[in-house]
């Protein structure tokens, strides 16, 4: 579904922007020995994993400190716990992905810019 917004300038209509609803794509990847459902967001500069998802791994992963300011939609700040640098198997490919672990995430993981390397 596409929604257009028009603006009248001296009697002429010009289309300023189109708002499009985009599909959301997910991929299943094997992290350690567990399948994790990851939302693909190739526009994100980082990959994220929820604290809840990370807590399913035994033993619990050791997180590295990370100095990053994460801002989501609407400039909302995301609180993070650290970085988990882990091998992920996606199909036949294995790739090391640094996940920033965040407290409140609406899905298990978001596969960010690294999706372009796969």
Q: Structural class from helices and strands?
A: mainly beta
| Highest-level CATH class | Mainly Beta
Can you count the helices?
Answer: 1
Q: Determine the CATH topology.
A: Cathepsin D, subunit A, domain 1
CATH architecture: Beta Barrel
Helix content: under 10%
The major beta sheet can be summarized as:
6 strands, mixed, barrel
Describe it for me?
By secondary structure, the protein is mostly beta strands. It has a single domain, classed as Cathepsin D, subunit A, domain 1, CATH 2.40.70. It contains one helix and ten strands, in the order βββββαβββββ. The protein has a six-stranded mixed barrel. Strands 1-2 form a two-stranded antiparallel sheet. Strands 6-7 form a two-stranded antiparallel sheet. A hairpin with a 5-residue loop joins strand 6 and strand 7. The longest helix is centred in the middle third of the chain and has 4 residues. The N terminus is likely disordered.
């Amino acid at each position: 579904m596409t929604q257009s917004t028009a603006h009248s300038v001296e009697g002429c209509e010009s289309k300023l922007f189109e708002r499009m609803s985009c599909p959301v794509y997910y991929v299943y990847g094997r992290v350690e020995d567990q399948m994790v459902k990851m939302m693909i967001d190739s526009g994100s500069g980082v990959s994220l994993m929820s604290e809840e998802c990370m807590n399913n791994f035994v033993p619990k992963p050791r997180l590295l400190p990370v100095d990053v300011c994460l801002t989501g939609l609407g400039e909302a700040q995301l609180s993070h716990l650290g970085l988990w640098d882990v091998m992920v198997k996606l199909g036949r490919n294995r790739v090391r992905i640094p996940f920033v672990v965040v407290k409140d995430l609406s899905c298990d993981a978001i596969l960010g810019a690294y999706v372009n390397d796969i």
